[in-house]
Write a structure and sequence with these properties.
It is built from four helices and seven strands. It is of the alpha/beta class. The protein has one domain: Phosphoglycerate mutase-like (Rossmann fold, 3-Layer(aba) Sandwich). It has a seven-stranded mixed β-sheet with strand order 3-2-4-1-5-6-7, with helices on both faces. β5 and β6 form a beta hairpin. α1 packs parallel to α2 and α3 crosses α4. The radius of gyration is 17 Å and the shape is globular.
């Protein structure tokens, strides 16, 4: 086996920054949802922190919030952003509805018929399909950056689902337990084609408003590393 075949490569999965969404809509794959001013600061922080890495390849979900998060890093690294439909947000039956306050869609009995199977899940794109498309994109990014590092800017559920699959954990989970905060970085470390390590850190963790975190980890936490 050649040295190139055993090269160490890292693929970083970056969640997009905060979105301007004053109405609290589950925006899903809808167009027109851009980063907020804070979200842009988060994207700039990612560019600052990851810009020092040996990143030679950047790809992004086609949605505005992801492309806007990828742009500062791509500029720093002087690479083009490749748009990849496979890392788009997951499909969700509840897209366009609100889940806060008096308009919470889950209080409407008409929505309950979609909640019968949390294992699939019955309200959206099957977890297995999300994991399959994410891993196809991860492998392509790995191959494009052999011996270096790549970045994929995606969304919380696709990133978390890919991590659950890599760690051979159940897809059934409480969304509040996802370790995937805004502009967090979930890194897949490869030796050759073999996934050897997963790591996680939050370069923009100190910018996340209190109460908006998806998991109880502070910005000062050391990256968590797990062998798949």
């Amino acid at each position: 086996m050649s040295t190139a075949d055993r090269a160490d490569t890292v693929v970083h999965l970056v969640r997009h920054g905060e979105v301007h969404n004053p109405e609290g809509i589950l925006y899903g794959r809808r167009d027109g949802y851009h980063l907020s001013a804070l979200g842009q600061r988060m994207a700039d922080r990612v560019a600052e922190r990851l810009g020092e890495h040996d990143i030679v390849h950047v790809r992004s979900s086609p949605l505005e919030r992801a492309r806007e998060t990828a742009a500062p890093l791509a500029e720093v690294r002087e690479v083009e952003v490749e748009i990849d439909d496979r890392v788009i947000e997951s499909l969700n039956t509840f897209e366009g509805l609100r889940f806060a306050g008096r308009d919470n869609a889950l209080k409407d009995p008409r929505t309950w018929r979609h909640l019968w199977n949390p294992f699939r899940p019955s309200w959206g794109e099957p977890y297995r399909e999300i994991a399959a498309r994410m891993f196809a994109a991860i492998r392509d990014a790995r191959d494009a950056a052999r011996g270096h590092e790549a970045v994929i800017v995606s969304h919380q559920l696709p990133i978390w689902t890919a991590r659950l699959a890599a760690e051979k954990r159940s897809y059934l989970h409480n969304p509040r337990s996802r370790q995937c905060t805004l502009c967090s970085v979930t890194s897949f470390h490869f030796t050759g084609d073999e996934l050897t390590l997963l790591s996680y850190h939050e370069p923009a963790g100190d910018l996340i408003p209190a109460g908006d975190r998806s998991a109880p980890f502070s910005a000062g936490d050391a990256p968590e590393e797990k062998k798949p």
